[in-house]
Amino acid sequence: MESLGMLAEGFQGALTPMNLLWVLVGCLLGTAVGVLPGLGSSMAVALLLPMTFALDPTAAFIMFAGVYFGGLFGDSTMGILMNTPGQGSAIASTFEGHKMALNGRAPQALATAAIGAFIGGMTASIVVVFLAPKLAELSALFGPQEFFALALFAFVATSSVVSDSAIKGLASLVIGLAIATIGIDAMSGVERFTLGAPQIFDGISLVTVTVAILALGEVLQVASRIKRDRDGKQVDASGRPFLKAHELKEAAPAWARGTAIGLPFGVIPVGGSEVPTFMAYDVERRLDRRRHDPQFGKGAIRGLAAPEAAGNATTGTAMGALLALGLPVSSTAAIMLAAFQQYGLQPGPLLFERAPDLVWALLASFFVAMVVLLILNLPFAPLWSKLLLIPKPYLYAGITVFCGLGVYATSGRIFDLLLLLGLSLLGFLMRRYDVPLAPLMIGMVLGPLAESSLRDALLSSGGDWSVLVTGPIPLVLYGVLLIIIALTVRSKVVNRTARDV
Length: 501
Fold this sequence. Notes:
InterPro entries: DUF112_TM (IPR002823). By secondary structure, this protein is an all-alpha fold.
């Protein structure tokens, strides 16, 4: 009850005319920046950081919250419409969301994303308000062996399912892991796969890989087919910006499952919402394979609903972890931690005692931002989908320019633009030979986590490999993984036997 009273006081602060204006401005700016490939909510917060010195702390952080959540929707918007996600959290949404757009269901796809973001974000905000003191206990359950088991689970499960060919899936995973290992090893100081180029001593940025593989690779694929498709059917970008009853019934379980998957990852430092969004996508894909008429690969609404809910649920609890624990579990949260320190504030348990007005107004602004984004984005879904009506040569030329600007803005180096071009050719070849992209992104995102967790576990145990199967969480994950592999092998054998007959 004490939390409800403090939240009510927070709403009094958040619902003042000026603070409402800052929420609206943050949501609009976050969405606008999020639609640019290579940028996103973290870039928007970083760019706005120097501009908020004239604001009082409450107004500044309320605007940051709007930018944070708005950026996530903007990331997904371009991922759905153009297959060019703003940043890693929207990668999983592109797989089925973009197919929905190509099938003439772009407004419904954007509505699915908006509602999923609302459900995930609102649920996470409620959890943060009532369970913030308990967040530390959940985070403490995960040690190096648990993180390694989680990463291995994601590696094998994803690469074995996303493609009809397990070899292609594993090849894509190996490429992602190879890219993730480029650079100077943090523990030994040894150069790995740098070919002596100092520009990649710090590794290859996830932003560069994401934009190259998913955005420019798609541009090259479309460019190679423009002449063939010039007389083809025009994509239908019109339609209703809402979901019918049967679509809501189809998406509702996925929203619920995605939210449940995303909530714990806000306090588990795995680098952001990429992991839970991929996990939510993978769960829905496995469930879809049991249906009489599988929809994945054709624009399955569940394949979009679950990652969107998971990503925003993770974002909400990540903000709770930042406020309650001082633990930044994503790049955007790390930037906001720096913003708190600029104002002389240190997130953590004492923040609730030293600046309760700011904390509870910020928590209340989460609820307000979710409502504002839903009101803004549902009516604007048909407008965003009009991007599909722009002639392909102009549209994809513009995307190419923004891809280059986005990557250059993050590093300021010409070398990264050359790297962007080289990796985009890799993305094009993978599409041409039907090699799945998801395992590559999973390897890139989780590769560093798996490596550091394996090393930490072995160092803490004196080189005893049995530590990797010590504890209930790793054993459960490995057990589930074995069951999944067995079911996948059985399914492939049955399908091949049916084809031969």
